[in-house]
Specification:
Layout lengths: L12 H43 L6 H25 L21 H4 L4 H11 L3 H50 L1
Length: 180
């Protein structure tokens, strides 16, 4: 369905291009965050597989057994954090009866509770000029940024806790080896 709203002719293409570029950059950053989380999950799953198969054969070597148990326990934290990066946040906590109350008309999680006709009419009513289109894109960029901040904060904690897990288990292994 086409919007029948008048579009002002004095549009500044640089502004729209800048907003598009910012939007595309944030979309790429979102993909990169998901890829980094998937890489860490894959790495941890591989390490868990190797370590857990080793645990079955180490019943008599208590020093290595304790070190590997500490390692596995410490690596559960980054695993949980990376899964939290990938799990979508529940955005449909409250169903909004009025379409005018949705937070972001450009995000599918908010508008899919309405019919296509309701959504089309709503968007056509919002897009009356270039300024209203810019405002929609700016709001979308902001909300993507909020999501990105959360994802990258969790990713940073996940990578730091994975590193900490390696260091702590190495120190525990050294301490046990030195003490025996």
């Amino acid at each position: 369905m086409k919007c029948m709203s008048p579009i002002s002719s004095g549009a500044n293409n640089d502004v729209i291009q800048t907003l598009r570029t910012a939007h595309q950059n944030q979309t790429q950053l979102n993909l990169m965050a998901d890829q980094k989380a998937n890489i860490l999950i894959g790495t941890l799953a591989l390490i868990f597989t190797v370590v857990l198969t080793k645990l079955l054969t180490l019943a008599d070597n208590h020093a290595l057994l304790i070190t590997l148990i500490v390692f596995v326990m410490m690596q559960l934290v980054p695993l949980v954090l990376t899964v939290m990066v990938l799990i979508p946040k529940n955005i449909n906590d409250k169903s909004t009866a009025d379409i005018n109350d949705i937070q972001n008309p450009l995000f599918f999680g908010f508008f899919t509770q309405y019919t296509q006709q309701q959504y089309s009419d709503y968007i056509c009513g919002l897009l009356v000029d270039n300024e209203s289109a810019r405002q929609l894109i700016i709001n979308d960029i902001y909300q993507i940024g909020v999501i990105l901040r959360r994802k990258y904060r969790l990713l940073r904690l996940a990578y730091l806790s994975a590193l900490l897990g390696f260091l702590v288990s190495a120190v525990v292994g050294l301490m046990i080896t030195i003490s025996t």
